Amino acid sequence: MRAKTPVLLIACGALAREITALFRANRLEQMTVECLPAKLHNTPALITEAVRAKIRKGRARFARIFVLYGDCGTGGALDAMLAEEGVERIQGAHCYEFFAGTPLFAELSEEEPCSFYLTDFLVRHFERLVIQGLGIDRHPELLPLYFGNYKRLVYLAQTRSPELLEAARAAAARLGLAFELRSTGYGELERALMSVDERERMPDALALPLLRSAGMGG
Questions:
Q1: Which residues pair with 116 in a beta bridge?
Q2: Nearest-CA neighbor of 15 among 26, 23, 7?
Q3: Residue 56: CA atoms inside 13 Å, Cβ hemisphere, count?
Q4: Angle between the N-to-C axes of helices 187-201 and 16-26, in degrees from 0 to 180, rounded to the nearest 10
């Protein structure tokens, strides 16, 4: 009987570039990543069952499965499903929190609750996902309806890119928001991947849960 591959990571497509960079930098050989479309964030009610389908399909081929999604607007449905399936996920309600880390994100939220956040992925795809996705390109009058209550745009930067920084500043100006840069790097995403890799190298008797357990706080 063919041995199962060690680990399947089920991830949001918005993290694909960052995961690939971390795989290369850290030579992570114990894991295979499969991404769901990033556009699912526009329909969060569909995320839970899409992840469940990946889990059930992956069990035939993989010894362990981990999920690289926050709650991402599922209202707790994702965590409830993961508890049923016995699968863990990265800690954090969304990618903003696990890139920034929970303490920093809490600080940013308390400092200015009316903040709009961008990551490298969202800066790259700002026009398609925000302007076109919300219909602002066709109906400019919608812009104040969507963003009138926001005060600032916070760019949580994974990389040091002058081009992305300029694009993020332009996005803030387009939305009429103050701009703030926070260079977070890969945050909890990198730590989670390294924890999974470390656990896979441990003898089973010593392996402990190193990621967030579904159904627990976070």
A1: 153
A2: 23
A3: 9
A4: 50
Q: pLDDT digits over 46-93, tens only?
A: 999 999 999 999 999 999 999 999 999 999 999 999 999 999 999 889
Q: Is the dihedral of CA 21, 24, 26, 27 positive or negative?
A: positive
Best CA proximity match to 105, nearest among 182, 22, 168: 182
CA-nearest of 140, 12, 150, 144 to 70 is: 12
- Please state the pTM of the whole predicted model: 0.83
User: Nearest to residue 91, comparing CAs of 177, 207, 196?
Assistant: 196
Structure tokens at 178: 């103050």
Can you read off the two tokens belonging to residue 99? 């890139």
Mean pLDDT over 153-178 rounds to 98
